[in-house]
Amino acid sequence: SDLRAPGRSSLVPVLVEPAETTRLRRMPVALVTDSTASLPAELTTERDITVVPLQVVIGATSYDEGTDGGVTPEMLAEALRAWTPVSTSRPNPDQMLEVYERLAKGGATEIVSIHLSGELSGTFESAQLAARRAPVPVHAVDSRQVGMGTGFAVLAAADVRDAGGDASAGASAARKRASTGPSLFYVDTLE
Predict the structure, then answer these.
(1) How many other C-beta atoms can be found within 10 angstroms of the C-beta atom of residue 64?
(2) pLDDT tens for each residue of 42-96
(3) Least confident piece of the model among 54-68, 115-129, 138-152, 160-174
(4) Range list of H helices, the chain
(5) Which CB contacts under 8 angstroms, 24+ apart, belong to 94-99?
(6) Contact residues for 21 (Cβ-Cβ < 8 A; gap 6+)
(7) Which segments of 1-82 are extended strands (E)?
(8) What spatial distance separates the first Cα and last Cα of the chain, rounded to whole Å?
(9) Strand partners, 62
(10) What pLDDT shows up at residue 111?
(11) Could you give the CA distance from residue 131 to residue 111 in angstroms, rounded to a whole number?
(12) DSSP state, 65?
């Protein structure tokens, strides 16, 4: 049948999800980021962006960040009020590789993987290590940002991809966008 992406007049390669989800995927360039990009789930679904969760460790229990059943802001706030140790853990390279393999199996021929600053987390390093073993080329991008600074970089790559650009152009757009915005932190207390 004639599968056209919404708003497109030419044929594009697509992967149709199971019947319960009928959205079209924009392949062959896949986009990956981590949960620190702070992108809403509806937006990542709409823009076909795969999000790999970081782990938030509260006490001795590890939770996925940004997923159903994962850590909630209320859980985190309560732990901090109770002085319960809180830390984060990067996705390991094997987890990243599983994501890259799944996307390649789904039709991706290139991947742009955009992550929070390598100066703050080992997530970018995990992406680099996984990229070496991935079945398709992976352009790992260190956004040198956190939060929506990374999110905006991911959206810039999505814009390029959706306009027909390749992974290299998407990675360049992400780097450029990430370099244009400052990251500001607010610390409530130094105690």
Answers:
(1) 16
(2) 999 999 999 999 999 999 999 988 777 788 889 989 999 999 999 989 999 999 9
(3) 54-68
(4) 41-47, 73-81, 93-105, 123-133, 148-162, 167-179
(5) 94/130, 95/52, 95/126, 96/32, 96/52, 96/126, 96/127, 96/129, 96/130, 97/130, 97/133, 97/134, 99/32, 99/50, 99/52, 99/130
(6) none
(7) 29-34, 49-52, 55-58, 61-64
(8) 63
(9) 57
(10) 98
(11) 9
(12) B
Two tokens, residue 57: 């460790």
Helices (H), 82-122: 93-105
Q: Is 55 helix (H, G, I), strand (E, B) or coil?
A: strand
pTM, entire model: 0.80
Confidence of residue 18 (pLDDT cuts 50, 70, 90): very low
| Residue showing tokens 């960040």 | 65
Q: Which residues pair with 65 in a beta bridge?
A: 71
Can you tell me the distance from the alpha carbon of 67 to that of 56, in angstroms, rounded to the nearest whole number? 11
* Statement: residue 185 has pLDDT above 60: yes
Tokens of 156: 């810039």
Quote the CA–CA distance of 129 and 148 in Å, as a whole number. Answer: 24
